[in-house]
Amino acid sequence: MRAIALLRDLRFEYHIAGIGPEEGQLRRLCSELGLSDRVKFLGFVEGVPQLLQTADVFLMPSLWEGFGLAAVEAMNAGLPVVASDVEGLREVVMANPSCGIFVNPLDLSSIAAALKELLLNPQKRVCYGMAAHQRSQQFSLTSMVDKYLAFYGKRTSR
To answer: Where are the alpha helices (DSSP H) in the chain?
Structure first.
């Protein structure tokens, strides 16, 4: 939320989907920072894929991720990702070809700079989004089943 506040000079809306124990604190912070006109709390969202289709960029500033399923879903929608440079996200987002920008989740200015870079550069946003969509296909159900079958096929043939 504090990184979003650094982008006051840009026209955008920031949507937060979901509910949880941090919501009250986030709402208070949003109000304190004067972001109530920019930040929309959507609550529980039934149609996440449809919501992602309306976005330009996906932000995931996690301090830790075991596996970035939300990032994969965003990438599948063709969104470039601004993601924390943590193991679970590094593995999913990858850097070559670039699907987004990695940031230090504790560095508010780097988060704001990454968002600004993508928001102001539609061509880069599209290129990263196309690479992101392509990368997300490696996590499709069919792809995962094929990988498991190949792995277990090698294990039984020893």
So the answer is: 2-5, 23-32, 48-53, 69-76, 87-93, 108-120, 122-136, 141-156
